[in-house]
């Protein structure tokens, strides 16, 4: 049975494994954060596929682009950022006249922007007012393992903890933070928990440019304006909401006067963003881990879930659109055709020209790897015993909190081969460090990386592989996983122990 036929049969069967565990749905899933078996985490809740949703025009469009809420520091000490971040549910009026219960950091959607400089010490008091255990994971940031919000370090419902770390020199970049309890991460993110973090360099060659911050997320709202649980398609493909938002707004208007620097986050659970400004070129100056060596001019840029980018925008006066063009990531089962989505209107109020240094940054020479590792993402579909089932695996295994999958040595540069041995796209993400992509291979053709960049999240197409250079600078346990959150939550995650 081929993949499409298998999935169509599975979706029509009441015995499909993802939809069959009503006992699990009734359990107290706050204990799920401690799940430690080698079997995939079962979905806690399952919504029917035919829930009535709000139409796209239910959310107003065309308002001025909203700035992010900047988290103020409570510290009077130089080079110390101290603040409190609280995760809690509250009622928000997303749709005029209707209330939606969202989960948010400091009652802000998206969560507050934290800004600090290289060399600063960050002290975040985290308060968990959810009914579930949760963590704060500092996505992409080079922080110690015991401060990185691993699933093993969940903060219980009603609890709190202090996250404390110092940002090393060379760590300037565009990051974010979100929950990472095992199994409950998908729900906590699709209900609103995500915040932003910028680490700045004091000698930033683009520091003089005015900035715009664009956090792209999506949201699903039922006809009563509530946020419904995941359905079967979500657990297979990853959740996508009918509303695609920018800083929590639908199709805002962004005004560009003089040349601007844009920082862009893909904070979606599973949606891929093939970004384009039709009729204009995009000047890419940065990636997940900061500036590129040289600016790159492209027509479009694909951001997988969890990826970030920095652009410089300039050009003639006039109005254009920021688009997310259709991207086929080989979803499974019954899915609608991909469509272009308008994210925002951009109004250039004057002619401008981007004047950039020839070299933005000097990356150190590539080091010769002293060890090699191989990571394989796979999907397993089965009809054993007449019951349809599906698993998302790393190196043939489902995530186990008690198992160490790989071992690395502190400071060693390693060559990792990441393989997507499956039918759909999967973005690879690793905690605690950045890596450099050397090349990718697809259908026997190897293609060098188009430019040097530091990454922590990188997409792999079906049956594509990538070679990356990676060095861990902190001891401890690190996660690596698919950043489609529903796949991560069902077992597509492994652990590397750095000694």
TrEMBL record:
InterPro entries recorded: Cu-oxidase-like_N, Cu-oxidase_2nd, Cu-oxidase_C, Cu-oxidase_fam, Cu_oxidase_Cu_BS, Cupredoxin, TAT_signal
Annotated Plastocyanin-like domain residues: 96-203, 235-310, 383-499
Cellular component aspect of the GO annotation: cell outer membrane; outer membrane-bounded periplasmic space
Keyword flag Signal: yes
Signal sequence bounds: 1-25
Domain of life of the native organism: Bacteria
Locations listed in the record: Cell outer membrane
Enzyme Commission number(s) of this protein: 1.-.-.-
Keyword terms of this UniProt record: Metal-binding, Oxidoreductase, Signal
Membrane topology: Lipid-anchor
Gene Ontology molecular-function annotations: copper ion binding; oxidoreductase activity
Subcellular location, principal: membrane
Pfam family, one: Cu-oxidase
PANTHER family listed in its UniProt record: MULTI-COPPER OXIDASE (PTHR11709), MULTICOPPER OXIDASE LPR1 (PTHR11709:SF2)
Identification of the protein by name: Bilirubin oxidase
Organism: Iodobacter fluviatilis
Source species taxonomy: Bacteria, Pseudomonadati, Pseudomonadota, Betaproteobacteria, Neisseriales
Gene that this polypeptide is encoded by: mco
């Amino acid at each position: 049975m081929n993949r499409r036929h298998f999935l169509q049969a599975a979706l029509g069967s009441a015995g499909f494994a993802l939809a069959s565990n009503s006992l699990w749905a009734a359990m107290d899933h706050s204990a799920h954060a401690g799940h430690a078996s080698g079997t995939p985490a079962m979905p806690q809740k399952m919504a029917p596929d035919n829930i009535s949703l709000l139409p796209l025009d239910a959310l107003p469009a065309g308002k001025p682009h909203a700035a992010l809420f900047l988290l103020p520091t409570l510290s009077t000490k130089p080079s110390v950022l101290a603040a409190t971040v609280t995760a809690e549910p509250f009622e928000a009026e997303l749709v005029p006249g209707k209330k939606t219960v969202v989960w948010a950091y400091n009652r802000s959607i998206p969560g507050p922007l934290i800004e600090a400089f290289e060399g600063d010490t960050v002290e975040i008091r985290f308060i968990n007012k959810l009914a579930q255990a949760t963590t704060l994971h500092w996505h992409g940031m080079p922080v110690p393992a015991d401060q990185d919000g691993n699933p093993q370090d969940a903060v219980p419902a009603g609890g709190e903890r202090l996250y404390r770390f110092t940002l090393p020199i060379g760590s300037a970049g565009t990051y974010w933070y979100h929950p990472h309890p095992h199994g409950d991460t998908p729900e906590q993110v699709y209900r609103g928990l995500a915040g932003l973090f910028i680490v700045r360099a004091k000698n930033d060659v683009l520091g003089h440019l005015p900035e715009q911050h664009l956090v792209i997320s999506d949201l699903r709202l039922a006809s009563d304006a509530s946020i419904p649980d995941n359905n079967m398609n979500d657990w297979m493909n990853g959740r996508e909401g009918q509303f695609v938002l920018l800083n929590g707004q639908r199709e805002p208007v962004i005004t560009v006067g003089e040349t601007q620097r844009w920082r862009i986050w893909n904070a979606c659970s599973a949606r891929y963003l093939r970004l384009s400004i039709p009729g204009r070129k995009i000047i890419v100056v940065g990636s997940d881990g900061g500036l590129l060596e040289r600016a790159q001019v492209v027509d479009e840029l694909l951001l997988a879930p969890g990826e970030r980018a920095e652009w410089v925008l300039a050009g003639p006066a006039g109005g254009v659109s920021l688009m997310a063009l259709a991207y086929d990531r080989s979803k499974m089962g019954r899915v609608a055709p991909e469509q272009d989505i308008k994210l925002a209107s951009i109004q250039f109020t004057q002619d401008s020209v981007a004047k950039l240094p020839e070299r933005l940054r000097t990356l150190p020479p590539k080091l010769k790897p002293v060890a090699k590792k191989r990571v394989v993402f796979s999907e397993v579909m089965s009809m054993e015993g007449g019951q349809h089932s599906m698993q998302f695996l790393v190196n043939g295994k489902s995530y186990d909190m008690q198992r160490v999958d790989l071992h690395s040595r502190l400071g060693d540069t390693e060559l990792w081969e990441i393989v997507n041995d499956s039918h759909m796209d999967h973005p690879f993400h690793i905690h605690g460090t950045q890596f450099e992509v050397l090349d990718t291979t697809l259908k026997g053709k190897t293609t060098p990386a188009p430019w040097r960049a530091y990454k922590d999240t990188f997409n792999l197409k079906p049956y594509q592989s990538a070679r990356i250079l990676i060095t861990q600078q902190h001891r401890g346990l690190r996660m690596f996983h698919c950043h489609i959150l529903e796949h991560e939550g069902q077992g597509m995650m492994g652990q590397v122990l750095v000694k």
